[in-house]
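To assess whether ligand presence alters the predicted conformation, the chain was also submitted together with S-adenosylmethionine. Input:
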Amino acid sequence: MELNYNSAAELRAFLDKNGLGMRKKFGQNFLLNPAVRESLVRALEAEAGDAVWEIGPGLGAMTSLLLEKGLAVRAFELDAGFARTLRELFAGNADFTLVEGDVLKTWTAEPPAPYLLGNLPYNIAAVLLAGFIEQGRFFKRIVVTVQREVALRMAAVPGSADYSSFSVVCASAYRVKLLMIIKSASFYPRPNVDSQAVLLELREDAAHKRPACFYPLVRRLFSSRRKTIKNNLTGFFSPERGAPAAMALEALEKSALDGNKRAEDLTLEDFAALAKTIEDMGI
Ligand code: SAM
């Protein structure tokens, strides 16, 4: 079975012939542009024999490229019809392993790999990437395609409008680099917004364990963006943690942070220092 991944008409005909539908709620958009597919795989810088996870292989457009390059691919696909097609397409290829089901639920049981690639379903992109980081599943290099707005959040720096808890979560483990913008016309069906490819390179200190409160703290400080960190932190201490609210002021002082700042002004190092102080205070 051969599939022409560059032609919307041929993909449509294949789907129809095999009784397969496209489900919007699964974020199903096929990347039709072969040059873009090639450059995404190149950005991964993986070599023959390396293991790579692919999230959302769809009908296998990226998968076939990865396999051609001699990579050992573990592909996570939710759609049962696509999974059946993938099994038929890559049957007998010892480098191909399919993990069928919702990747949010299946990935924890799978052996780690140094590389991750995916044209991510838009509705799970942020939750999935944050989950990997918060649960300590690190990859040496990640190349993902996400909605442009999500890409901008991933790469945002302190003080910018796009800077969010997700920016800090990404920066806590990776150096984030924006790659090419991919116009919606490059996909079938055409999504409403443009996408962007993002490269995440593992930081040398990523595996150093962060205090248990680090990620909940980051989320809490961003929870009411317009509030000062003093106000958000007071809520984090009490009632959330049952610690006297006054201790929040002590924690800020010990971390040399101005409580009148907002989360959007804090650097990764500021969040890390505050989390360390809170841990040392035993809260
Ligand atoms: N890789 C293909 C490509 O580039 O043309 C398809 C990418 S499409 C944007 C996203 C894929 O993720 C679809 O195949 C969809 O069925 C799959 N998907 C959606 N939600 C998923 C989930 N929770 N777990 C695993 N796969 C999922």
